[in-house]
Design a protein that fits this description.
alpha+beta; three-stranded antiparallel sheet; 46% helix; 17% strand
């Protein structure tokens, strides 16, 4: 709901209050739009080094409770029903399988204040920080930070400040944050946005940065991005992708090849960066039991289902297959 609500708000008001992303695809879309105008100017990335461990429970409960009240206030129906397969708004509810505004706040409060862990024969109750290892933890972290981010932008809007427009290129994946073409607005403001308990560290700033699975450089007014995988730097062999002889259906094995080729293409702008990584994948899967003809069919599937992702390379399917095979040999 929050994503839909704020996407609509951004469309109509031109202010971006919701910075949360679930993957790198929204960042890629933003980079592509900027590249059409050749207006790439700067990129910075940050990391919350103490996100989960220093948040005070009373503050966390207060923030989540305000968000819950806002959500219920915006709906005509007064209950959230749930089943094993879905959740939904309802006026009636079914037995005990629903939450009201009050019971949902009570449930969140109870879960935050009653997380225990054991060390040897001793049992401890966690009294600070987001409880680790429970399912809602990353969602709570996202919502906690969102609360302050949205409030900051809303304050700038109410002040009629042009600074509010500078967050269009800001995105956050839980505790990793990226700003694009913001004129260093975030770096000047972040201490005023978040509670003092949170420590935010600058990782990259200028014309190069890595964020999620992207390696991004600025060249001639364009963001040149390619796939980034930190495992490439490991000084030891990494087992990647399944083997045909493993205990999985062949359809899943070849489906994983399709998905990985698609990921490489989606996260790589230039063919000169795509070719070596895609060829390495091609040869690796051959060595792990794949049939070349079957791999080619997976690549063809990608061309047919997602033509917009591959058309940037200016290659036909047959030219790409030839390049992959030739590059691998040489």
């Amino acid at each position: 709901m929050y994503i839909y609500f704020h996407n609509k708000g951004t469309y109509y008001s031109s202010f971006k209050k919701f910075w949360v992303v679930e993957n790198s695809y929204p960042i890629i879309e933003k980079l592509n739009v900027i590249n059409t105008r050749r207006k790439a100017k700067g990129i910075s990335t940050y990391d919350f080094s103490t996100l989960y461990t220093t948040i005070l429970h009373n503050l966390l409960i207060k923030v989540l409770s305000e968000i819950i009240r806002f959500v219920f206030k915006s709906k005509v129906r007064s209950k959230i029903g749930f089943s094993a397969a879905s959740i939904y708004w309802t006026s009636k509810g079914s037995g005990r399988r629903y939450f009201t505004e009050k019971t949902l706040i009570d449930a969140v409060t109870f879960l935050i204040k009653n997380c225990y862990f054991s060390v040897g024969n001793m049992v401890f109750r966690q009294d600070i920080g987001i409880p680790m290892g429970i399912d809602p933890a990353p969602f709570w972290a996202n919502l906690f930070l969102y609360f302050f981010e949205s409030k900051h932008v809303q304050t700038l809007v109410s002040q009629r400040s042009n600074r509010a427009y500078k967050y269009h290129g800001t995105s956050r994946f839980i505790d990793d944050l990226c700003t694009i073409n913001d004129g260093n607005e975030f770096s000047r403001s972040f201490k005023c946005i978040y509670p003092k308990e949170l420590v935010l560290k600058l990782e990259h700033s200028g014309t190069h940065a890595t964020f999620l699975d992207l390696d991004i450089n600025i060249e001639d007014g364009m963001f040149i991005y390619k796939l980034f995988d930190k495992r490439d730097k490991f000084p030891f062999f990494i087992v990647r992708m399944p083997h045909l002889q493993s205990n999985i259906p062949s359809s899943i094995f070849y489906g994983s090849i399709f998905s990985e080729f698609l990921r490489i293409a989606r996260c790589t702008l230039k063919f000169q960066h795509f070719l070596p990584r895609a060829s390495e994948l091609y040869q690796r899967m051959i060595s792990q039991g794949a049939n070349g003809t079957s791999i080619n069919r997976q690549i063809l599937k990608g061309f047919q289902r997602y033509p917009d992702i591959f058309k940037k390379y200016g290659k036909t399917y047959y030219e790409l297959i030839e390049d992959l095979q030739y590059f691998g040999i040489n």
